[in-house]
Design a protein that fits this description.
319 residues; Arc Repressor Mutant, subunit A
Length: 319
């Protein structure tokens, strides 16, 4: 299903609900049974801060093409925390988990949203004006923070999901306060999530970020997708650069700038995340997982796994 939506800065939740025939009850938008299950909800605090929670799955793939029509002077930054909820809407085994990460970009970059079928979506999207972000983080001196707060051109940064983010997001799902206080409660939780995001960004090497053309962003994410799709094959840097239409130095720089890791380091990170999932959710043996992900030496696989996950694979599978 392909849906075209114009976002005037007030958000897309209700327009999406209308497009798919969802039921609206108060601040909750419930996915109809013929489309899937779960809900969308959110809050808006004027032009400075908006938040949307997605906690659902869809039976059919949905592609949203969004046209941005922000008010003059409105310059939002979007923080999309995906796969951040500890529990799915329905624990059906055939449903795939959403990849856990945080994507940070200008509002204009987040124009296409793909929602694959039979995937569990558990995300929090925060849209904040730069003026609001400067009040919270304007005194921090770090190149990435400065890019988010001041850059005139497009940018995108991606980082992982921390345990603190998962805890805070889970508290947003089952808030313990009365309805009269919930707006204030959720605003505080949004600010808490933003603090955890910036805390992770501050751990990155303090190198000035280059501006990125939208085509560069698409090319870097195409490389990420290729790495994800070939976790049993070590990346060929020269081939990736050619496919991206970039020189090797430019490709390496923009990839590390976006993801905080070099191409091979990020490949190993994704490889170990998938290994952890296969051990825990699919209950495969250590040897099955190692060979499936391209390791011929299981001792090496065990060492790499422990470096990334913090424990040996056999221990992780029973933890």
């Amino acid at each position: 299903m392909k849906i075209s939506i114009t976002d005037d800065g007030s958000g897309i939740a209700r327009k999406l609900a209308q497009a798919i025939g969802a039921t609206v009850k108060g601040r909750f938008i419930y996915i109809p049974e013929n489309k899937g299950s779960g809900y969308i909800t959110g809050f808006s605090w004027g032009n400075d801060l908006r938040m949307m929670i997605r906690n659902y799955h869809l039976k059919e793939e949905v592609l949203i093409e969004r046209t941005n029509e922000l008010a003059e002077g409105q310059d939002d930054v979007v923080f999309l925390l995906s796969g951040v909820f500890p529990s799915p809407v329905h624990p059906e085994k055939q449903l795939l988990p959403e990849q856990a990460n945080v994507m940070i970009c200008r509002h204009a970059v987040s124009s296409i949203i793909a929602m694959p079928s039979n995937t569990l979506f558990g995300s929090v999207t925060i849209a904040a004006s730069r003026q609001y972000l400067r009040l919270l983080f304007g005194k921090i001196q770090h190149p990435i923070v400065e890019s988010i707060l001041e850059a005139k051109d497009n940018f995108v940064f991606e980082t992982g999901i921390s345990p603190e983010m998962i805890r805070t997001a889970s508290e947003m799902l089952d808030q313990p306060i009365t309805e009269s206080l919930e707006s204030h409660y959720y605003k505080l939780k949004c600010e808490e999530l933003l603090c955890y995001i910036f805390a992770l960004l501050l751990q990155r090497e303090a190198i000035s970020a280059s501006s990125m053309h939208i085509n560069d962003i698409k090319a870097i994410y195409a490389i990420k997708l290729r790495l994800q799709s070939h976790l049993n094959e070590a990346p060929d840097i020269a081939s990736l650069a050619r496919e991206a239409g970039m020189s090797e130095p430019k490709m390496r720089k923009l990839f590390k700038q976006t993801f905080g890791k070099g191409v091979f380091e990020y490949y190993q990170y994704m490889r170990m995340q998938e290994a952890a999932r296969l051990l825990k959710e699919k209950h495969l043996t250590v040897s099955e997982v190692g060979y499936q992900l391209g390791f011929t030496n299981l001792s090496h696989f065990s060492r790499v796994f422990e470096q990334h996950i913090g424990m040996k694979p056999k221990k992780h599978s029973v933890a």
